[in-house]
Design goal:
With about 375 residues, the chain is of the alpha/beta class. Helices cover about 50% and strands about 15% of the residues. Helix 1 packs antiparallel against helix 2 and helix 10 packs across helix 11.
């Protein structure tokens, strides 16, 4: 049974009619299949999909990114890679099943795979905690990223999470520290890292695994610091203002590419990735091949510096200054604010010197 979003009502009706036409054993009994009418109806459905999906607003894109039939990390791991060997545990507490990790082959090249997994049905979603990682999941990822770095193996990461798990146990075991360490590890290693946001990239839970050499998004995926519902609740005190929140946060792939937060958008089939999984699978395969080829000729130091420069340049071309500054340094030598601080410090030193001299002379007088 197909699942439809609330703005796909017209498509639902058309596809229901199409299914009835394709079935010769319908409610009216045995009937002749009308191929001309089927072809015409299919064209009408395609045109309707194009009309709807070419004008999606940010909140509708969020709904598509969360679609329950959307391909998950396990689907990509099973169909893109060979000889996958799953590795478990963080060597501190336990294994976190919300993230699938292990080594595999991609075009006969060894790679490390890390994939946040939401699950496909209720049972698997509960098992994978709806893709919300606990501290042990991030520590497992760190352990394996360091292992991949040791043997110079590229890392491919599939990001799909509403955010890190906010439970009491997770906080007691150091959720914030684990996320921070994961970001630190991602920035420190000297092998190529490719993060692909396939659905929902939510909060620090996503950033912890998306601080990569190359960040790629599927066309209808989202990537944000908070969910639209959470943002609307905080800013407007109204969780129903999801459209305003989603628009303000610029969470779509197109907006984030314009801001240079991400590096590439992978095209989805008409109507979303869930409508043609083979199409999106082939596009992801081509993107990974191209990305690995880009890094193949670079040394470890060049890979490290390229990643550093990429993140230091975010937000520096469209900021408050008219010209962009050096990408390799966070120097604020000519910053007006720093000059003001320096002037203030000089005045403080002058006043301090005058105060000491005054105390000295007053001491002499009273003596």
């Amino acid at each position: 049974m197909k699942n439809y979003l609330n703005f796909e009502v017209d498509i639902k009706d058309l596809e229901k009619e199409l299914d009835e036409l394709k079935d010769p054993y319908n409610n009216t009994g045995l009937s002749e299949v009308e191929t001309d009418k089927i072809s015409k109806l299919q064209t009408e459905i395609d045109e309707k999909l194009k009309e709807i999906y070419s004008n999606l607003n940010p909140w509708q894109k969020t709904q598509v990114a969360r679609h329950e039939d959307r391909p998950k990390s396990k689907f990509f791991i099973d169909n893109l890679f060979e000889d996958f060997i799953s590795l478990s545990g963080d060597r501190y507490y336990s294994d976190d099943k919300s993230v699938i990790t292990g080594f595999a082959k991609f075009n006969n090249q060894s790679v490390l795979i890390i994939g946040q997994e939401k699950g496909d049905d209720l049972e698997s979603r509960i098992e994978h905690n709806f893709g919300m990682m606990r501290p042990e999941g991030y520590r497992k990822s760190i352990r394996l990223m360091k292992l991949a770095d040791k043997f110079n193996i590229p890392i491919i990461i599939f990001v799909d999470t509403p955010g890190a798990y906010p439970g009491v146990g997770a906080e007691e075991r150091g959720q914030a520290e684990a996320i921070a360490k994961s970001i630190e590890c991602s920035m420190d290693i000297k092998v190529p890292t490719i993060s692909i946001i396939i659905g929902e990239g939510g909060s620090g839970g996503a950033i912890a695994l998306a601080s990569s050499s190359k960040v790629i998004m599927l066309e209808n995926a989202i990537y944000s610091v908070i969910s639209p519902e959470g943002c609307a609740t905080i800013l407007w005190r109204d969780p129903k203002k999801t459209l305003e929140a989603a628009t303000a946060m610029k969470l779509s792939s197109k907006d984030l590419l314009d801001l240079k937060v991400i590096d590439e958008i992978i095209e989805e089939p008409l109507g979303g990735a869930h409508r043609d999984k083979n199409f999106i699978l082939e596009n992801v395969r081509k993107s990974i091949e191209k990305s690995l080829l880009e890094f193949s000729g670079l040394s470890r130091e060049e890979v490290f510096n390229k990643r550093k420069e990429k993140f230091l340049s975010i937000g520096r071309n469209k900021g408050f200054t008219s010209t962009s500054r050096s990408k390799t340094s966070l120097s604020l030598e000519n910053n007006n604010f720093l000059n003001l601080v320096n002037k203030f410090k000089k005045k403080q030193l002058i006043f301090l010197a005058l105060a000491i001299l005054s105390m000295f002379f007053l001491g002499i007088i009273f003596i």
